[in-house]
Amino acid sequence: MRMLNRLFARVWNFAFGRRGDERLREELEGYVAMQAQENVRAGMTPTEARRQALLKLGAVEAIREQYHEEEGLPLLEHLLHDVRYAFRQLRKSPGFTLTAVLTLALGIGATTAIFTLVQQVMLQSLPVDRPDQLWRIGDQPHCCHWAGYSQDSDDNSGDWNLFPWEAYKLFRANTTGFQNLAAFQAGNVGLAVRHAGSSGPAETANGEFVSGNFFQTLGVSA
Amino acid sequence: MKEKRDVQQGTLALMVLKTLQVLGPLHGYGIARRIAQIREQLLSVNQGTLYPVLLRLEQEGAVASEWGPSENNRRARFYRLTRAGEKLLEAEKRDWEQTAAIIARFFEVKAQDLA
């Protein structure tokens, strides 16, 4: 409760910029006056009395500093001062500021771009049911949208990645290591698609034939 | 001669509370004077450090303060102990007594007592 009260008072003072400088000044003056008066009663000259009173009070600046630190939120205040100072310095040297801003901008941009690429290519898994159990048969990257059938011809002899429909059926009938084996057409067909009932222009889309168990194998709905 | 030491702020706060409890509402100078009287030469403190402590106690709700006329017709800020301050003082007092008792007993122990 005490800590809460104190924190609340500090936040309040900080938020409304309230400073008790005036109050402290008056209090310290009061102290010196009263102490001096007593010193005079003890037999000192007024000047000496005041001097002694000030000595007894201690370093006023240090006290003010301490007082002020009790008052608000010194940490935040210093932070604000530092930020303001930094901005002032930046405004004073626009060349440096421009260089720094450009460097940061380029750095952040490049990092973001590279990360986006890495994430899409390497980190993000396929949007299918169990991507870790999905395999493609073949030893070349040609698949999917590759239409140039070149197996066993010219310099690509020995490639093993595009298969005839009959071969697929043979594989499917004799594959025990996998739960399912699906197939899709090598290459695709350009389609013009228009939503039912829509009168807008048709949009282009890619289409291809797939085996009947394709969506079931991937665990996605059509 | 004993070495003069700075009083820790916490101790000073406790002395302030006790002073206000004994003497009732008092201005800063009165508190400083009273504490200096009791402390004598043992501990020396810049008397001005009292004011941050007073502010802190006020923010904690242990003391309340308002302006009022002092003996020599100056305006002075008078501090008084609040209910929360009374409770705080009691708690702190118990803590100190306990600590002091433990330390005292510890120093009284002789080798043969432990054998």
Write the layout of secondary structure elements.
The complex is a heterodimer of chains A (222) and B (115).
Chain A: H1 2-15, H2 21-41, H3 46-57, H4 60-71, H5 74-92, H6 94-123, H7 165-174, E1 189-193, E2 203-207, H8 214-218
Antiparallel strand pairs in A: 1-2
Helix pairs in contact in A: 2-3
Chain B: H1 9-23, E1 26-27, H2 28-39, H3 50-60, E2 63-69, E3 75-81, H4 83-108, H5 111-114
Antiparallel strand pairs in B: 1-3, 2-3
Would you kindly provide a written description of the structure presented here, covering whatever features stand out?
The complex is a heterodimer of chains A (222) and B (115). Chain A has 222 residues and is mainly α. Chain A has 3 domains: 2-92, no CATH class; 93-124; 131-218, no CATH class. Chain A contains 8 helices and 2 strands, in the order αααααααββα. In chain A, strands 1-2 form a two-stranded antiparallel ribbon. The longest helix of chain A has 30 residues, at 94-123. Chain A starts with a helix and ends with a helix. The model of chain A has no long low-confidence stretch (mean pLDDT 84). Chain B has a single domain, classed as Winged helix-like DNA-binding domain superfamily/Winged helix DNA-binding domain (Arc Repressor Mutant, subunit A), CATH 1.10.10.10. The termini of chain B are far apart. Chain B has 5 helices and 3 strands, in the order αβααββαα. Chain B is of the alpha+beta class and 115 residues long. Classes of the chains: A mainly alpha (222), B alpha+beta (115). The A-B interface holds A 1-3, 5-6, 9-10, 20, 23-24, 26-28, 30-31, 33-35, 37, 56-60, 62-63, 66-67, 69-71 and B 27-29, 32, 45-49, 51-52, 55-56, 58-62, 70, 72, 74-77, 84, 88.
